[in-house]
Structures are given as structure tokens and as C-alpha cells.
């Protein structure tokens, strides 16, 4: 293995990407190229040092070939990862997570580049064991009309392609499965800097800032284990210093932060109370059909087994929900409260 000098982050302008790129620039001396179609999140604060920002889609003619030629390590983070889109535009979701990325895997395999691919905890589908394990848990997707699973299926198939290249063609790669990472600048806020329904943290933030009800889909008894984005970034940076992680599939999540969506809503309402305007938000029960439309499906609980990440990366997530929610909410308030007040008048 040669010492790493340069790295390309495909999708590095997104939520996870922008936090990771900032960490890369702060904590390494690697040459960094970021490829994305939008850099608003990255450019929202000065970068610690210069990075090459390439505004392009991974499907642009010749882009993958050029990037793989120029960098020793490629981090692949592009996807449409909001569940509200899985049953609304499943073909775009499948292309973004599978079709568009097969050429990247093939090219990294041919050119002997190190590929760090961000897959997803969604590949476990409806499996609900106490702790989902990378190599022993089954991946249980719902039936075809439940289009919710289009994303998971596309992500799983790309994992299988990567695995086949590693096993049979000498590709060096690591597959990461993030579990419900949350933090500042997640997704978008509808009506402010995007349209549609973002993931739960951003959607609840939108409701709080606008004094609207927090929608609890099918009652909010379903559970998720939330990982703070800084803990996630620390693990991903640790991966770059860990040759033993090559060839592995690794869960990154925080089993300690396993709570129901109704409890998350209650904790966010409480943490937001100091910013509260005249209209306080309350939770509101909504049906999945009315909220997401036909084809949505869900998993009741999703807790990661993180023994492998802990052993390989000497990593343990340390941020509790009680510690992270006030910081996340303060950040959203500082970015959006003025705009929310303007929209209300
Ligand atoms: C999503 C994505 O599918 C994946 O991109 C990703 O791997 C995963 O998040 C993640 O963040 O790691 P999911 O956990 O279902 O999966 O994401 P959310 O949209 O944040 O929903 C979490 C739960 O909250 C779901 O049960 C959903 O029905 C519920 N929800 C969501 C609400 O009750 N209210 C809302 O306003 C939004």
C-alpha cells in the first residue's frame, strides 16, 4: 500500500460529505477534490484550506475516468437518500445508487484504486434483530409494490458488485453502512432551500421553525438509533489510517441513541422551547399513506452492531441525543430563524 496523497469525494457537497470534507481539510494534508452539483453547504463557512471543487454530476462524460486516474482514493457518497422520494421517483433513486456507480466500481477495480463506498443501513430492510451485524444479519426487503425498498435494493446490489470485484478481481474497497446520522445542515428545509419531504430531523426542524405540527407517521412508535455527524466524521477519518479496514463492510451508528420517533419529537420540542415563538409546535399523528403516498413501507427498529467499527477503528460514538439536540437546534435557528419569521409575515 502506497502512502495516500490525494482523495476525491464524490457527493462531498451533501450533508455527510460537507462535514467529512471539512474534517479532511482540517485533519489531513491530503489533496482534496470534491465533486458535486451544489456546494452551498460547503461554502456556508470558510474552508480550513483550499480544496478543488468540481461542479459536475458523476454521469458527466469522462468524469469518473478522470477522477479515478488522478486520485488514489475515491469516496463515493452520491445518492438520493430521502425516503419520500423512493416511491415517487424510484427509477432516479435506483440509477443514482446503482446504475450510475457501476462504472466507478469497475474503473477503481481496473486502476487499483481504493474505493470507500457509502452504502446504507437501509440494506438491512425490515430485519429487526437486537443488533444488526454486517456479516450475519439477513437483508430483508419488502415486496416489489412496496417501492420504499427500491433504494435499499439498489444499494444492496451495488454492495454485491463491489464485493464481487474485491473477491474475484482484487479491488480494494471498504463499504460503510451509516445508521441515521443527524446534525446541522441535514437534507434541506422545505420551502427554504428545497422542496419535498426531508428526513425526520430536518422535517421536525422545519415544523418547529414554522410553528407547525410535527408529523408522527403511523403514531411514531417506530424506533431509530441516531448517530451524531461529528462522531460519524471521526470514524470515516479514522478509516483512512486503517489498512485493515480494506475488504470490510462496516456499520457506523450509535446503539445508545435508540429511541422512538415520538420520543425524538418530544425531545426536540423541549430543546427548542427556549427559541419558541408565539405558536408552539405539538406532535400530530398522520398515516403513512397520507404522508408518503402508496408504496411506502417502514422498519420498526434499526440498531447497529458496531463491534467491528470499534475494533478496527478504535472508535466509539460519544454524543448522546441530549448533548447533540441543543447544538443542532441552535445551528438551525442561527441559519433559518430569520427566513422563517420572514415567511410567516
Ligand atoms: C432513511 C433513508 O432511507 C436512508 O437514506 C438512510 O440510510 C437513513 O434514513 C439514515 O438516515 O441513515 P429512515 O430511517 O426511514 O431512512 O429515515 P427518516 O426519513 O429520517 O425517517 C425515520 C422515521 O421517522 C420513519 O419511520 C418515518 O416514517 C418517520 N418520520 C419521518 C416521521 O414520523 N415524521 C417525519 O416528519 C419524517
Please characterize this protein's 3D structure:
Helix content is 39%, strand content 15%. It is an alpha/beta fold and 345 residues long. It has a domain at 6-182 and 229-253: Rossmann fold (3-Layer(aba) Sandwich). The longest helix is centred in the last third of the chain and has 24 residues, at 321-344. It is globular. Bound molecules: uridine-5'-diphosphate-glucuronic acid. Uridine-5'-diphosphate-glucuronic acid binds next to helix 7 and strand 8.
> What's the CATH H-level homologous superfamily of one domain?
NAD(P)-binding Rossmann-like Domain
Shape: globular
Mean pLDDT: 95
The main β sheet shows up as:
7 strands, parallel
Rounded to an integer in angstroms, the radius of gyration calculated over CA atoms is 20 Å
Q: Provide the CATH topology of one domain.
A: Rossmann fold
Amino-to-carboxy terminus distance: 59 Å
Q: Would you list the SSEs in sequence order as H and E?
A: EHEEHEHHHEHEEHEEEHEEHEHHH
CATH architecture of one domain: 3-Layer(aba) Sandwich
Under the CATH scheme, which class of one domain?
Answer: Alpha Beta
Low-confidence stretches: none
Kindly estimate the percentage of residues that lie in beta strands according to DSSP: 15-25%
Backbone structural class? alpha/beta
Q: Which ligands does the model contain, each kind named once?
A: uridine-5'-diphosphate-glucuronic acid
Amino acid at each position: 500500500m502506497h502512502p495516500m496523497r490525494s482523495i476525491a469525494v464524490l457527493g462531498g457537497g451533501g450533508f455527510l460529505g460537507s462535514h467529512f470534507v471539512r474534517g479532511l481539510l482540517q485533519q489531513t494534508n491530503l489533496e482534496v477534490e470534491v465533486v458535486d452539483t451544489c456546494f452551498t453547504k460547503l461554502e456556508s463557512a470558510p474552508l480550513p484550506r483550499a480544496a478543488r471543487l468540481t461542479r459536475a454530476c458523476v454521469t458527466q462524460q469522462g468524469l469518473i475516468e478522470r477522477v479515478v486516474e488522478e486520485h488514489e482514493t475515491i469516496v463515493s457518497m452520491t445518492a438520493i437518500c430521502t425516503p419520500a422520494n423512493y416511491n415517487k421517483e424510484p427509477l432516479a433513486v435506483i440509477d443514482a445508487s446503482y446504475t450510475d456507480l457501476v462504472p466507478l466500481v469497475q474503473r477503481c477495480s481496473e486502476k487499483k484504486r481504493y474505493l470507500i463506498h457509502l452504502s446504507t443501513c437501509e440494506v438491512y430492510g425490515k430485519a429487526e434483530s437486537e443488533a444488526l451485524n454486517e456479516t450475519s444479519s439477513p437483508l430483508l426487503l419488502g415486496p416489489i409494490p412496496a417501492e420504499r425498498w427500491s433504494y435499499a435494493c439498489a444499494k444492496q446490489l451495488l454492495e454485491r458488485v463491489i464485493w464481487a470485484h474485491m473477491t474475484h478481481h482484487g479491488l480494494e474497497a471498504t463499504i460503510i453502512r451509516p445508521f441515521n446520522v443527524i446534525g446541522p445542515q441535514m437534507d434541506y428545509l422545505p420551502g427554504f432551500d428545497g422542496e419535498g419531504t426531508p428526513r425526520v430531523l430536518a422535517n421536525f426542524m422545519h415544523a418547529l421553525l414554522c410553528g407547525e405540527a410535527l408529523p408522527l407517521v403511523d403514531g411514531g412508535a417506530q424506533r431509530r438509533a441516531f448517530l451524531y455527524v461529528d462522531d460519524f466524521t471521526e470514524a470515516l477519518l479514522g478509516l483512512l489510517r486503517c489498512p485493515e479496514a480494506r475488504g470490510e463492510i462496516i456499520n457506523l451508528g450509535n446503539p445508545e441513541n435508540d429511541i422512538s420517533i415520538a420520543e425524538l419529537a418530544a425531545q426536540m420540542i423541549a430543546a427548542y422551547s427556549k427559541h419558541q415563538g408565539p405558536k408552539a409546535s405539538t406532535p400530530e399523528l398522520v398515516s403513512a399513506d397520507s404522508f408518503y403516498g402508496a408504496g411506502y413501507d417502514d422498519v420498526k427498529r434499526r440498531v447497529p452492531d458496531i463491534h467491528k467499527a470499534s475494533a478496527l477503528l478504535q472508535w466509539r460514538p460519544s454524543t448522546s441525543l441530549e448533548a447533540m439536540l441543543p447544538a443542532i437546534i441552535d445551528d438551525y435557528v442561527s441559519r433559518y430563524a430569520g427566513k422563517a419569521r420572514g415567511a410567516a409575515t
